[in-house]
Amino acid sequence: MLRKLWKSSIQLLTVFIMLLILLNIPALFINESRNISFQPIKFIQAITNMGKQIFSVHSLTFQIPASTGNMKTVSLFPTVLEPYVYSFTILFAALFLSLFVAASIAYLYFLSSKRIKNMIERTVFVLEAIPDVMIMICLQMFFMWYFRQTGELPVHIMTFNENRAYILPIICLSILPTIQMFRMMILYIEEERIKPYVEVAYGKGLSSSYIIRIHLFKNIFIHLFHHSKMIFVFLLSNLFVLESVFHMSGIIQFLIFTNHFSTSITFIVLIMIVMPVYLLFQICSYFMKRWQTQMNGEII
After folding, report:
1. Longest Cα–Cα distance in the chain
2. How many C-beta atoms surround the C-beta of residue 203 within 10 A?
3. Quick check: helix, strand or coil at residue 113?
4. What is each CA distance from 132 to 144, 232, 273, in whole angstroms?
5. Around 284, how many Cα atoms within 13 Å sit in the side-chain half-sphere?
6. Which residues touch 132 (CB under 8 Å, ≥6 apart)?
7. Cis omega (within 30 of 0) for bond into 65
8. Radius of gyration over alpha carbons of the chain, in Å?
9. Could you list the residue ranges that cross the membrane (predicted)?
10. Number of H helices, E strands in the chain
11. pLDDT digits (tens, 9 = 90+) for 243-262
12. What angle do CA 289, 290, 291 make, to 5 degrees?
């Protein structure tokens, strides 16, 4: 256990150091007059200054437009917390929605007739071929058309002032990860169905729905977890596009509008994004390994 904690700490420290180096790379080659030259001393000074600013995080400030049209200076904390919570609410809600929908479709897929399976496959193929930006814009246009026809708007199609969009961004962000998870589940279930324990289960008279729901899903979720990092990175990258399309005041604005924020603020925001995700996957990995150990040699 201590060895695992030590290894995780080293990995996390390596991430911090790499972020410090990458964010200060411009100081290694570009001087104040914008001329390109090799400047290792400036590079070390930039890293040192960033380190000092990070350890005095409550003194970090940035400017935002005021209602008067001028710029006003605000502190990074607690200003950053509200958009941070907003973005991660959308992100994790989309992740869990993708997992639930993908599992439901995969379950129905294996219990359906060949005709229904073909319909599901064609639908998945079409959705997979459409760019995610196009899906977002088309859904927005649909609800705008619906509003013009009925005068009612069931969901917010864009964030404006205090009216924040939740449902539509979550749905848009979850579509492509749902397709990815569905395809993985189909692949892993097909692999699991030919294993001896499934034949034993059928021999005991257990129904297909019971075997898929209780035994196969339990095994494929372990395999699916190993791909969850890739899926989460995909969700995070799509969040950049999502916040622009839906005019969301989320955490990604602190990374996109780099001209308005210092590199120290960018570093703090990246750490805020990396830390909870890293800790979540480490905790899940620990429990998954324990679960997998308990399942080894299990006989139905």
Report:
1. 79
2. 9
3. coil
4. 19, 15, 22
5. 15
6. 172, 175, 176, 238, 241
7. no
8. 24
9. 12-30, 84-111, 123-146, 166-189, 231-255, 261-281
10. 14, 2
11. 888 888 888 877 776 555 67
12. 90
Is residue 170 assigned to a domain?
A: yes
Instruction: Indicate whether 111 and 11 sit together in one domain.
Output: no
Residue 204 CB neighbour total at 10 angstroms: 9
- CA 279, 180, 280: angle at the middle one, nearest 5? 5
User: Structure tokens of 103?
Assistant: 């599992």
In single-letter form, the type of residue at position 53 comes to Q
Buried b (16+ CB within 10 A) or exposed e, 59-75: ebebeeeeeeeeeeeee
Q: What is the pLDDT of residues 55-114, one digit of tens each?
A: 887 778 777 766 666 777 778 888 888 889 998 999 999 989 998 998 888 888 888 888
Q: Same structural domain for residues 69 and 217?
A: no
Q: Which domain holds residue 25?
A: 1-78+264-300
Q: Into how many domains does the chain fold?
A: 2
Give the N- to C-terminal CA distance of the chain in Å, as an integer: 31
Query: How far is it, in rounded angstroms, from Cα 37 to Cα 27?
Result: 10
In b/e form, how buried is each residue of 278-295, taking b as 16+ CB within 10 angstroms?
beeeeeebeebeeeeeee
CA nearest to 186, candidates 213, 153, 220, 218: 220
Q: By the 8 A CB rule, do 210 and 140 touch? A: no
